[in-house]
Design goal:
With 483 residues, the chain is α/β, with parallel strands linked by helices. It has two domains: 150 residues, Leucine Aminopeptidase, subunit E, domain 1 (3-Layer(aba) Sandwich); 324 residues, Zn peptidases (Aminopeptidase, 3-Layer(aba) Sandwich). Helices cover 34% and strands 21% of the residues. The strands form four sheets. An eight-stranded mixed sheet has the order 7-8-10-9-13-17-14-15, sandwiched between helices. The chain has a six-stranded mixed sheet with strand order 1-6-5-2-4-3, sandwiched between helices. Helix 9 links the parallel strand 9 and strand 10. The protein starts with a strand and ends with a helix. The protein binds ligand BES, magnesium ion and zinc ion. The site of ligand BES has 17 residues, from helix 11.
Length: 483
């Protein structure tokens, strides 16, 4: 929980005071709050607090524990490191059992305050559903944070947006067998229940068959779960048309299919629906923020399982738009479900632009690592808009090339195209995007390959702990609210 308050009161169990070295030297600390200033004067005499980045210094003041949080040199301080500092302070052992914390920052710009909000709401998110609690529970108490800042719509919105990010993370972190197509449909139906300007179309196995989404069906053949293409239409604008469609890859588990993934690559594959989760998190935010645009939210859900029913390498399947695809590798399944979803939406909803999000290729992780998602986009203006939202939100993207000659790399001898690129291993993120481009039919299109950024496998990165990051929700929410 996070709320804003106009003035520092020092009335909670603890108070974080965020200070950079310049402010500390100038003694220009904490909104001229005399209590905090007094406390600080004592410390500077002790000479042991230097406001270095990462330094956390406790002072007891009446009934309140004041934690001075050093931010280092102002010129070195990024919004990312500010988020990290807030997270580390809130998770520090000093505050383990503390529930109510006030946060005071001297710097009161909008971007700084937003970063503090995210440092709390994104930074202290923890996935603990399956950890048993005992009475000697050592886990960190969830906090009520009171941030000193004047009430502003933009800050309230930042708080709202973090809830969408954390919804996406919950969906990704939970078991693959729990978060199946039924669960995702129920989640969406709960979000849109009773809301205005909303309609939903769900294509279950029967409808996918009747309409001929043959690639989507092929991917799901080894699974006991039902495949679904779920499309939510939101008409927030008073004008008709000009839809922005967001399409998320929703592979609830990716075994690789008969081209089975080896140990070391398969363990985290419940994250293969992170694109769909980002779309659902954004849907939550759009409804909460009452966005005045026409939008389409689509998630393409299947499970890439093994078994005698599974689709096979070498076989050919027909897509919704009639093009045939030779299966070079059953592990290149994301582009198959997305291809059908893209052409279904292009033909039936005629959007002005499409943004797809997908944990699509290991090659993108090789190229860009875990900090930047790959962006493939059809034109420069669209690219600038996405990159702008990326820069503003810390959902980082890096543009990769796309050009007509790439089409040769996905040709097939027996079908219209193949689902893997040639030569093997060359620019896998680009050839995967090129495959998707074949289904866009000239619609403006941006593709985000989030294979590296969606999930942290390890103890944590930046201001994220282990597991899902919710990548894409902040970027999309910003893009849709800043026309
Ligand atoms: N879901 C994976 C991509 C992935 C890799 C996501 C690492 C998250 C982390 C995707 O379906 C996949 O398996 N892609 C293959 C494509 C190859 C067979 C052409 C890959 O990247 O190895
Ligand atoms: Mg795969
Ligand atoms: Zn996959």
């Amino acid at each position: 929980m996070l709320s804003l308050r106009p003035n520092a009161k020092l009335d909670k169990e603890a108070c974080l005071v965020l200070i950079d070295q310049e402010q500390f030297k100038e003694k220009k600390v904490a909104l001229n709050n005399t209590k905090i200033k007094d406390a600080l004067r004592q410390i500077s005499q002790l000479n042991s607090f230097t406001a270095e980045n990462g330094q956390i210094f406790p002072i007891s003041h009446n009934k309140t524990l004041i934690l001075l949080v050093g931010l280092g040199k102002r010129s070195d301080l990024s919004l990312t490191s500010l988020r990290i500092a807030v997270r580390n302070a809130l998770l520090s052992s000093y505050l383990k059992k503390v529930r109510d914390v006030e946060i005071v920052a001297h710097e009161q710009t909008e971007s700084t305050l937003k970063a503090i909000i995210e440092g709390h709401l994104i930074g202290t998110y923890q996935w603990a559903k399956y950890k048993s609690k005992d009475k000697n529970d050592q886990s960190i108490v969830e906090k009520n944070v009171y941030l000193v800042a004047s009430q502003r719509k933009s800050l309230e919105d930042a708080i709202t947006i973090c809830a969408g990010v954390n919804l996406a993370r919950d969906l990704i972190n939970d078991n693959a067998d729990t978060v199946d197509s039924k669960h995702l449909e129920a989640t969406i139906r709960t979000l849109i229940k009773g809301k205005k300007h909303i309609s939903i179309e769900v294509l279950n196995e029967k409808e996918l068959k009747a309409k001929g989404l043959g690639l989507h069906l092929a991917v799901n053949r080894g699974s006991l779960k039902e495949p679904k293409l779920i499309i939510v239409k939101y008409e927030g604008s008073s004008k008709k048309g000009d839809y922005t469609a967001m399409i998320g890859k929703g592979i609830t588990f990716d075994t690789g299919g008969l081209n089975l993934k080896p140990t070391g690559h398969i363990e985290t594959m419940r994250c293969d629906m992170s694109g769909a989760a980002a779309v659902i998190g954004t849907l939550k935010n759009v409804l909460a923020l009452n966005v005045k645009r026409n939008l389409i939210f689509a998630v393409t859900i299947a499970e890439n399982a093994i078994g005698s029913g599974a689709f096979k390498p070498g076989d050919v399947f027909k897509s919704y738009n009639g093009k045939t695809v030779e299966i070079g590798n059953t592990d290149a399944e994301g582009r198959l479900v997305l291809a059908d979803a893209i052409s279904y939406i292009v033909r039936n909803y005629k959007p002005g632009r499409i943004i797809d999000l997908a944990t699509l290729t290991g090659a993108c992780v090789v190229a860009l690592g875990n900090d930047y998602a790959g962006l493939v986009v059809s034109d420069d203006k669209f690219s600038r808009d996405i990159v702008h939202s990326s820069n503003e939100t810390d959902d980082r993207v890096w543009r990769l090339p796309s050009y007509p000659e790439l089409k040769d790399s996905i040709k097939s001898l027996c079908a219209d195209m193949k689902n893997v690129g040639f030569p093997k291993g060359a620019a896998g993120a680009l050839t995967a995007a090129e495959f998707l481009r074949q289904f866009t039919e000239g619609t403006a299109w941006a593709h985000l390959d989030i294979a590296g950024t969606a999930f942290v496998d390890g103890s944590g990165r930046w201001y994220y702990g282990h597991g899902a990051t919710g990548f894409g929700v902040r970027l999309l929410s910003h893009y849709l609210t800043n026309p």
